[in-house]
Design a protein that fits this description.
The complex is a heterodimer of chains A (about 450) and B (about 190). Chain A is an alpha/beta fold and about 450 residues long. Chain A has helices spanning about 5-15, 40-45, 75-90, 105-115, 145-155, 180-190, 205-210, 210-220, 235-240, 250-260, 305-315, 335-340, 340-350, 370-380, 380-385, 435-445; strands at about 15, 20-25, 30, 55-60, 95, 120-125, 140, 155-160, 165-170, 200-205, 230, 270-275, 285, 295, 330-335, 360-365, 390, 415, 430-435. Chain A folds into 2 domains: about 5-275, Aconitase, domain 3; about 285-445, 2-Layer Sandwich (Aconitase, domain 3), CATH 3.30.499.10. Chain A has 16 helices and 19 strands. Chain B has one domain: Aconitase, domain 4 (Alpha-Beta Barrel). Classes of the chains: A alpha/beta (about 450), B alpha/beta (about 190).
């Protein structure tokens, strides 16, 4: 019987149990951050337990960290959470990229960047955007704090094997259309729960032609469609990316030979298949309060079909029939584990070059990691943002969820390269509109979205 | 974890689909390093007005719903962020059972770790439960996998392992440590490219 890549990785990690029941799975790598780990370490202490494999865990601070004056955290509760991770990492012998460290950044940016993320692995983190790492041909998913504790103590996790879904993405990406538009387009068409209970694999010529950062953007938002795992089979692009990174395997050629087995035999192995043609795809912008509430930039917002739509329109302050061009943008956010990598910043900077953001717009640029920040500065990208009137900041999760001081004011519409437009996500009363970095850059300049396929910035 | 067998109590209907964990517990309450104290901030943005006063229109604030421990809700409950704080907040508030049309996978796993019984029932059955009076009780019977209200008897599915854990109040880590030998054996056979 033919197997998916997912089946093959899964089979290699089963310690006990049979398919259909919860199975005990080995975890190759756990990434930790300050928000979902303190209660897990506390649980170990209460029960006098150790971290089973400190070398298979890696911690950093990202959710809470300020993006200016990073060593002076004014919020005492945030500071306590950050300090607690530092103490826990030290006490339990877990590697830590602490505040100001050259390796620090958003967990889903630093894992790949450091070569910790590798094909064929099972990777977990107390964060739902862990699916990002699936872009390397791994099984990667978000877990809760009790599971974080369980993985720390045993390096394993109980999981029931999900069904598999193949998403066949094909066609040449039109000008002005990016990975972000693909995943937003899929979620807009299929809904925010189409992937629940499935492990998704993205494949097809569009995916094969993508670089690793584009692939990560797609896998990252799997959870917004309900799938806690989204992956792409590893190929030469993947191997070239991993090779030479800080924690990449030393015997890299042998590792690559091993990784090559993780391929889906054929489409018949999937429980379900979805087809997505990108040849006529338009730039997407979200109008509502979940990522499925998105439309192509040139299409009107939909009619109110139910109480949820009504609630979303009331919150967001827009009306059916309007288009994204009519959203008055007051705030702009470039960053997050979805679009905070170097290529994302390059795309935004290219769009902004020679322009200035519109009057009354506040624009924040938050690189996904310190390395991304430093590379961008080497290339002079920071200067393009600054010349355009943007605020160039230190790395972290920042205004994607506003746990640090970077919050969008109530009632203000924010064009954002992040992943969630839930009520209050970027700040109480904040109105989030998700889009690609190029679309967000154009919105910053004009004070409203434009169709970047047809209109010049 | 406290064992759960049978729960009889009043209900709170909140029949909205896609209630995400940002709504269950907003980010400003995730900074604590403890597992307790989240109940008062459950549904914070819906439950409190901008001035901090309770929103009288929100169902959790209505007198007749105080003390209810069974939440009746919509599809895809607990979607979005993986924060286990959402489950802690529901439990701290006093919820013992959620009856929804479905759950995000991560939320569901978190509920199994904290003794919050998350049951799935079809919409027509939930509609019946959502329309009973605030003072009427229903019974959730885990060993028999049934929700009972008057003459109605709705059966639900639950994985036998999770059921065993709920009914016996077992701690996951202790169970897994019983597999230590198998884990060590697995580790000894792993490929190593370093």
């Amino acid at each position: 019987m033919s197997q998916t890549m997912f089946d093959k990785i899964w089979d290699k990690h089963v310690i006990t149990g049979k398919v259909g029941d919860p199975q005990l799975m080995y975890v190759d790598l756990q990434l930790l951050h300050e928000v979902t780990s303190p209660q897990a370490f506390e649980g170990l202490r209460e029960n006098n337990r150790k971290v089973r494999c400190p070398d298979r865990n890696f911690a950093t601070m990202d959710h809470n960290v300020p993006t200016i004056d990073i060593f002076n955290i004014k919020d005492v509760i945030s500071r306590n959470q950050i300090d607690t991770l530092g103490k826990n990492a030290k006490e339990f012998g877990v590697r830590l990229a602490g505040m100001g460290s050259e390796d620090q950044g958003i967990v889903h940016v630093i894992g790949p960047q450091l070569g910790l993320t590798q094909p064929g692995m099972i990777i977990v983190c107390g964060d739902s955007h862990t699916a990002t790492h699936g872009a390397f041909g791994s099984i990667a998913f978000g877990i809760g704090t009790s599971e974080v504790e369980h993985v720390l103590a045993t390096q394993t996790i109980w999981q029931t094997k999900p069904k598999t879904m193949g998403i066949h993405i094909h066609g040449k990406l039109p000008k002005g259309i990016f990975a972000k538009d693909i995943i937003m387009g899929i979620i807009a068409r299929e809904g925010v729960a189409f992937g629940t209970g499935y492990a998704v694999e993205y494949y097809g010529d569009t995916i094969s032609n993508m670089n690793m950062e584009e692939r990560m953007t797609i896998c990252n938002m799997s959870i917004e469609g309900g799938a806690k795992m989204g992956s792409i089979q590893p190929d030469q692009t993947t191997f070239d990316y991993v090779k030479g990174r800080k924690y990449a395997p030393k015997k890299i050629d042998q590792a690559i030979e091993y990784w090559k087995q993780f391929k889906t035999d054929d489409e018949s192995a999937f429980d379900k298949i979805i087809d997505f043609d990108v040849s006529d795809l338009a730039p997407f912008v979200s109008w509502g309060t979940n990522p499925g509430m998105s439309v192509p930039v040139d299409k009107p917002f939909p009619e109110i079909k139910n109480a949820d739509d009504k609630k979303a329109y009331d919150y967001i302050g827009l009306q059916p029939g309007q288009t994204a061009k009519q959203i008055p943008i007051g705030y702009v956010f470039f960053g997050s584990c979805t679009n905070g990598r170097l290529s994302d910043l390059k795309i935004a900077a290219n769009a902004l070059k020679g322009h200035h953001i519109a009057k009354g717009v506040t624009a924040l640029v938050v690189p996904g990691s310190r390395e991304v920040k430093e590379q961008a500065e080497k290339l002079g990208i920071d200067q393009i943002f600054k010349d355009a009137g943007c605020d160039w900041r230190e790395p972290g999760c920042s205004a994607c969820l506003g746990m640090n001081p970077d919050q969008v004011p109530a009632g203000v519409h924010c064009a954002s390269t992040s992943n969630r437009n839930f009520e209050g996500r970027q700040g109480a009363g904040a109105r989030t509109h998700l889009a690609s970095p190029a679309m967000v850059a154009a919105a910053a300049v004009h004070g409203h979205f434009i169709d970047i396929r047809k209109e010049a910035i | 974890m406290k064992p759960i067998t049978q729960i009889t109590n009043t209900t709170i209907p909140l029949m909205k689909d896609n209630i995400d964990t940002d709504q269950l517990i907003p980010k400003q309450f995730l900074k604590n390093i403890l597992k307790t104290g989240y109940g008062r901030n459950l549904f914070y943005d819906w439950r409190y007005l901008a001035n901090g006063a309770k929103n009288p229109d929100f169902i959790l604030n209505q007198d007749k719903y105080q003390g209810a421990s069974i939440l009746i809700t919509g599809d895809n409950f607990g979607c979005g962020s993986s924060r286990e704080h959402a489950v802690w907040a529901l439990k701290n508030y006093g919820f013992e059972v959620v009856i929804a049309g479905g759950y995000s996978d991560i939320f569901y796993m978190n509920s199994t770790k904290n003794g919050l019984l998350a049951i799935t029932l079809p919409k027509d059955q939930r509609e019946i439960l959502a329309n009973i009076s605030a003072n009427e009780e229903i019974t959730v019977d885990l060993p028999n996998q049934e929700v009972r209200y008057k003459d109605h008897k709705f059966t639900f599915e639950i994985d036998p392992l999770w059921k065993h854990k709920f009914v016996n109040g077992l701690d996951d880590v202790a169970i897994t440590m019983g597999y230590d030998e198998q884990i060590s054996q697995y580790e000894a056979n792993m490929p190593n490219f370093n």
